[in-house]
Amino acid sequence: MTAKAFDIGTAQALLAEVFAPWVQALDLRVQMVEPSGVVLRLPSAPALARVGGILCGQAMMAAADTAMVLAVSAAAGGFRPMTTVQLQTSFMRPIVGRDALVDARVLRLGKTLAFGEITIRGDGEPGPAAHATTTYALL
Amino acid sequence: MTAKAFDIGTAQALLAEVFAPWVQALDLRVQMVEPSGVVLRLPSAPALARVGGILCGQAMMAAADTAMVLAVSAAAGGFRPMTTVQLQTSFMRPIVGRDALVDARVLRLGKTLAFGEITIRGDGEPGPAAHATTTYALL
Amino acid sequence: MTAKAFDIGTAQALLAEVFAPWVQALDLRVQMVEPSGVVLRLPSAPALARVGGILCGQAMMAAADTAMVLAVSAAAGGFRPMTTVQLQTSFMRPIVGRDALVDARVLRLGKTLAFGEITIRGDGEPGPAAHATTTYALL
Amino acid sequence: MTAKAFDIGTAQALLAEVFAPWVQALDLRVQMVEPSGVVLRLPSAPALARVGGILCGQAMMAAADTAMVLAVSAAAGGFRPMTTVQLQTSFMRPIVGRDALVDARVLRLGKTLAFGEITIRGDGEPGPAAHATTTYALL
Fold this sequence. Notes:
Oligomer: homotetramer
Helix content of chain A: 10-25%
CATH topology of chain A: Thiol Ester Dehydrase, Chain A
Largest interface: A-B, 34 and 34 residues
Radius of gyration of chain A: 14 Å
Strand content of chain A: 35-45%
Mean pLDDT of chain A: 95
CATH class of chain A: Alpha Beta
């Protein structure tokens, strides 16, 4: 295949094409693309904070799901239509007043199903704030 | 207890108080409040649709989490500070061009943990579009 | 197809055919078969109890997974080869010195994926002891 | 603290003390204990194989749950009474005719909740066969 590599630019462009405007409002920024995963930055923003200035869990779940679509595309060598089958997120620590880094890794890319895990950390913090696992159906 | 009941008005007001503005942009509307659960309406909106006009999964997860905070408050007789421990969502059918109805039920309200399940349907459709289970820590 | 219905006898026979001997040691007994689900009884047994006489969670997860294979078969009109994609279980209350009733329901039977939920109760107890959701790939 | 370390011997002894006999029948063997996790070996056995000689998923879930109890104990510096709140397992590849290695890591040890993830591989195989995430309540 002579296709261009799935790189940061391709991934960032995909964010603007296939996701809902409400998801695009997260302003996710692709930081890294590798064959087995991606890292996105979720910038700190008042609109995403609940009482106490804590990054809302809804935004973390949305970022996790979005990041994994890009990670599966990276692993597949380009965007593939897919649908989320399930996503399980555990919330371990709050993120307050910091960007979040969303690291999505493909655990297995099968013919019809892809599995992955996502770790979210506050930028500069050692421990994970949230951890998710997910299954996608490849269409 | 002389407290006012936790009713539709209380629940709707809570939506505007404790959730992040980005979550409030979902425009969730409380349809029903019962001792063990709530039903919210997630109005169809172009901002929530991904390619093909399909209601994005990110919005369904966010609505599920938000609905359960209200359901736990209903079961507890009033808002209680709480934090989501985990939320697992399965996506079963697309919702296209319809409002979504988000039915959140408390399965168990313990002293420190609450468990619930959420079923999301396209308005007027028989089968569930998504189903979630969740655990909250009561603070 | 002139196949016999998938009934209690068929389901009980399947338990002895396709599951591992270690799973058969749970001694699960089919109580009810319906088009959308099954109910199994997990008899109380010292071998399944951990310290304090509490039914171990491992047995509840195993019973949930096993019951759903039968429920999907019931919904499909007969046994179909399938594989568990994921299973999420929440543990809400202990079961002590009682049989457990395992109620497995198919939420959606698609062409390649089936979704279900399982509720486990102590026999005679009102509230659920455990609740699980699961996805299967139909082969 | 003058307490004896939580080491392989302590962990192996714990396997024989606090788990149900049916779980002990898995014959799990502690391979490694570290401050943040443990590795157990689940020996290949005909009793654990379903049709086709495939290690049954029920045994993998049971091993994951059991391993995490030991991992949390390792992280806490000794056995602590705890109860599983939820466990989510994804099944990615079959294990056939091989031992399974069960690697349980604590992601966060809080005051009342502990979070972890478990990766199960066929011995000698590069890719994961199953991956689980879990929450425990510390009593």
